[in-house]
Specification:
By secondary structure, the chain is mainly alpha-helical. It is built from 18 helices and no strands. α8 crosses α10. The two termini are 34 Å apart.
């Protein structure tokens, strides 16, 4: 029920995000990408709500989630209507001429979507028959600690449980008496765990444990779904399920670090594709994804920033160096992330000390190369 609640609340905007970033995705690929997209949106909303308001509120978070769902459903419906509208011969001629002049013969939106669907159908025929079994086994591996262990391993979960319980109990990260001060940590993971605690009534430690393992499952399936575009979903999920790094961090209860890897799914969908296949909406969503990941853990933003720099370096001296798409993503990302930094600094200057530590973490995560 808790998994259905968390994934279901962000399912509509998550599917809208997938349709924009990967319009040719079939149902299986959407199923692999949906948990990661849904959780990334919920993490971002919960974290930014604490940043902007200075406190956690279940009512405000639920209202914001409902607003985002309505907006995503409305935009998705309008986008579908525009996509299926048949153009007149003159409109189509103008569109082809403008595209050829601006981008050297890029095809129209309808042809792009048709090509995406043909490519997805070709990928689907090449999937191995054992892919569903691999996905099921990876899910069992991710959720088995919830059955085997009474509480998370490691010691980090104690701090996260304390943060989450403070948010659920008081709405703030203030230290309990006789201590003075406030906790210093990005708020997205504790805030979403606090929401789960208040919604389900589970103990705080169980909420931390469940949310961490659910996020690990979403990361593995999401990366495999992004790799499915190149027919590598089966081998990717196999390699991730066998890799010790993510599981070592999860078993050490470093859940926010694992959760910040949700941004890699977004980065793979946007960056690892030809520049001319991207549009401004994809670049804008990537930039906001960096801002959303920043309130989970700074390492996620650093990974996305490193991936962006690697992509710019790879395309700087290629045949696409004169394309306007090459620098657009970097400019949009800089503007969005810079605006988010200004908002945090503004909160530091205009509100009381409750934002000081949070602002330091944001600045350290975005303005240096060393994670906090």
């Amino acid at each position: 029920m808790s998994a259905g609640l968390l994934i279901g609340l962000g399912l509509i905007p998550g599917l809208a995000l997938i349709r924009i970033l990967d319009p040719g995705a079939d149902r299986l690929r959407q199923m692999m990408l949906a948990p990661a997209a849904s959780l990334l949106i919920l993490y971002g909303l919960a974290g930014w709500l604490v940043v902007l308001r200075g406190e956690h509120s279940v009512g405000s978070l639920v209202a914001l989630i409902l607003l985002v769902n309505v907006a995503a459903a409305t935009v998705g419906w309008q986008k579908q209507v525009v996509r299926v509208r048949r153009l007149s011969a003159w409109e189509r001629l103008e569109e082809i001429a403008e595209a050829a002049e601006a981008e050297g013969g890029t095809v129209s939106l309808e042809e792009d979507v048709a090509a995406e669907k043909q490519h997805a159908a070709l990928v689907a025929t090449g999937r191995p028959s054992w892919l569903p079994w691999a996905l099921a086994i990876s899910a069992i591996i991710c959720f088995s600690p919830l059955i085997i262990l009474n509480r998370p391993m490691g010691v980090d979960w104690l701090g996260f449980a304390t943060l989450s319980h403070r948010l659920a109990e008081t709405g703030s990260l203030a230290l309990p008496e006789p201590n003075v001060g406030r906790w210093t940590y990005p708020p997205a993971f504790p805030a979403l765990a606090a929401f789960l605690e208040e919604a389900s009534g589970m103990p705080t430690s169980d909420c931390i444990h469940f949310l961490g393992q659910l996020t690990l499952f979403a990361v593995i399936w999401g990366v495999a779904g992004a790799a499915d575009r190149w027919g590598a979903s089966a081998t990717t999920v196999l390699s991730l399920a066998l890799a010790p790094a993510l599981f070592a961090k999860a078993f050490d209860s470093g859940y926010p670090t694992v959760a910040s890897q949700l941004g890699l799914v977004l980065g793979l969908l946007v960056l690892v594709k030809p520049p001319r296949e991207r549009n401004k909406r994809m670049d804008l969503l990537f930039a906001f994804g960096v801002a959303f990941v920043g309130v989970i853990h700074p390492t996620g933003s650093l990974y996305l920033g490193s991936l962006l720099l690697a992509w710019l370096g790879a395309h700087r001296f290629s045949a696409q160096r004169d394309s306007p798409h090459a620098g657009r993503l970097a400019i949009i990302s800089t503007v969005v992330v810079g605006g988010a930094t200004v908002v945090v600094i503004g909160n530091l200057r205009t509100k009381d000390a409750r934002h000081t530590c949070l602002g330091r973490i944001w600045m350290a995560g975005w303005l240096t190369i060393t994670p906090v």
